[in-house]
C-alpha cells in the first residue's frame, strides 16, 4: 500500500514538473504572426540575455500618448552569444525602434527582427546576419558572372 502511494506521488510530481517544462517553450507560429511585421519606438527599460529566449522590455507611447509596456522576444542566449551579443548589447535607457512579428492575440509583444538605435546603428539576429551574408555572396557571384560575359 505504501509503495503504491509513493509511486503515485512520484508520478504526480513528475507530471507536474514536465507540464511546467512543456509550457515554458512555445511554437513560434502558435504565438507570433510571421506574415506581418510592425514597428514600435520607445525606450528600453530592461534587457535579459537568457534562455529559452532573451527578452527586452520597453516603454512606448500609444496613440493616446500614454506610456505602455512592450515586450520583445529574441532568440536564446546561446544563439545570440554566437553572434557576439552580450548582456550589455542593449542597455536600459536607450531609445530604439524595433521591428518584429506581432502576436496573433494583439498583445504588446513582438518577435524580434530588427532594432535600430537612435544613432542609426542596426542590430539583427545572428541568423539574419548569416542569411544577409549568403545573399550578399550570391549577388557578388552573379555580378562576377555578368562581368565575365
Q: What letter string, H or E per element, gives the SSE order?
A: HHEEEHEEEH
Counting helices, strands and paired strands, the structural category is: alpha+beta
Distance between the termini: 85 Å
Radius of gyration: 21 Å
| CATH-defined architecture | Beta Barrel
CATH class categorisation: Mainly Beta
Query: How many strands appear in the DSSP assignment?
Result: 6
Mean pLDDT: 83
What's the number of domains?
1
For the biggest β-sheet, the strand order reads 1-2-3-5-4
The helical percent reads 25-40%
| Oligomeric nature of the chains | single chain
Kindly estimate the percentage of residues that lie in beta strands according to DSSP. Answer: 25-35%
Q: In the CATH scheme, what's the topology name? A: OB fold (Dihydrolipoamide Acetyltransferase, E2P)
Describe the largest sheet. 5 strands, mixed, barrel
Give the name of the CATH superfamily.
Answer: Nucleic acid-binding proteins
Q: Count the helices. How many?
A: 4
Notes on the structure:
By secondary structure, the protein is an alpha+beta fold. The protein has one domain (28-148): OB fold (Dihydrolipoamide Acetyltransferase, E2P). 37% of the residues lie in helices and 30% in strands. It is built from four helices and six strands, in the order ααβββαβββα. It has helices spanning 2-23, 28-31, 77-82, 126-148, and strands at residues 38-48, 55-61, 67-73, 95-102, 109-117, 122-124. The chain has a five-stranded mixed β-barrel with strand order 1-2-3-5-4. The longest helix is centred in the last third of the chain and has 23 residues, at 126-148. Mean pLDDT is 83; it is low at 10-23.
